[in-house]
Amino acid sequence: MLEPRPSEVRARIVKAAIALFSRQGFHGTRTREIARLADVSEVTVFRHFDHKEGIFWSALQSCFSSIMPRLTLLGDTSRDEAPEVRLPKIVCVLVDVVTYCPEMMRLIAVALLELRGPAEEVCRANLTPFFTAISDYLTRNIESGKVRTLNPAIVTAALGLTVIMQPELSRIVGGSPLSQLGGRDAINQYSEFWLKVLVPSHADAFPRFSPIKVTEQPVSPAQPYGGDSQ
After folding, report:
1. Residue 194 and residue 92: Cα distance in Å, rounded?
2. Which band of pLDDT confidence, cut at 50, 70 and 90, is reported for residue 187?
3. Tell me: the pLDDT tens digits for 134-178?
4. What's the rounded Cα separation, in Å, for the pair 190 and 207?
5. Helical H segments across 77-206, by residue range
6. What is the pTM of this model?
7. Which residues, including other chains, have CB under 8 Å from residue 64's CB and lie 6 or more apart?
8. Residue 191 has pLDDT above 60, yes or no
9. More exposed terminus of the chain, fewer Cβ within 10 Å: N or C?
């Protein structure tokens, strides 16, 4: 039987680390648990990584890498699209991240709460270009009069937080149906809301948003490796 390549072993370790760190946190996860879930020895784990923090940062970077093509494409193209076209695309990417990469969101929270240190730098390096592109797009449309005169940085942060955090927060708001929405319905609802907020012509009467065809493929799910550790 052929021995697995070192790159394959490392990938298994990272995949196991994503599953465990996102579920148990940094301090609640032991390297021997990662080794067991990856089906390798703990000695093998430390042949590929110098320390536990190195495993964690590789796991988080792997999650960032899975969404980077979508973020880059959205940030670099269609600079002159109307808000009615562009905003649903932005919302679509954010909904996909929440839906298909929930482990990444949890790992970001773990990094900021438990590790701190380089956490902010790592998140900034991977996410700032995307959110800067949104802010720059809003700025151009504010200057052209297509979007209300609001602080683009605050709007960008609010847009991101609305999509990322609202589904969980809505669970504690009586009568809110948003936590039960599927992906496409969520895109419709968030797009309709933000177009009403940002675009003057949509303030008084806005017909229900008709889903546009988004050509980009959804991000790949970050599936946990194997089963639960014992």
Report:
1. 13
2. confident
3. 999 999 999 999 999 999 999 999 998 888 876 666 666 666 565
4. 14
5. 83-100, 102-110, 119-143, 152-169, 183-198
6. 0.77
7. 104, 126, 127
8. yes
9. N
Q: Which residue's structure tokens are 């790159």?
A: 7
For all residues of the chain together, what is the average pLDDT?
82
Which residues neighbour 41 within 8 Å (Cβ) at sequence distance 6 or greater?
Answer: 35
pLDDT for 76 = 61
Give the three-class secondary structure for 70: helix
Query: Per-residue pLDDT tens for 40-87?
Result: 999 999 999 999 999 999 999 999 998 888 777 776 655 678 999 899
Kindly tell me if the per-residue pLDDT of 16 is higher than 90. Answer: yes
- Hey, what are 185's tokens? 């319905």
CA 44 to mean position of chain CA atoms: 30
Note every long-range contact of 19-25, with CB atoms under 8 Å and residues 24 or more positions apart, other chains counting.
19/103, 19/224, 19/225, 19/226, 20/229, 21/56, 21/59, 21/106, 21/107, 21/110, 22/102, 22/103, 22/104, 22/106, 22/107, 22/110, 22/224, 23/106, 23/224, 25/110, 25/114
The answer to whether the beta carbons of residues 14 and 50 sit under 8 Å apart is no
User: Could you give the maximum distance between any two Cα atoms of the chain, in Å?
Assistant: 68
Q: What distance in Å separates the CA atoms of residue 175 and residue 89, rounded to the nearest whole number?
A: 28
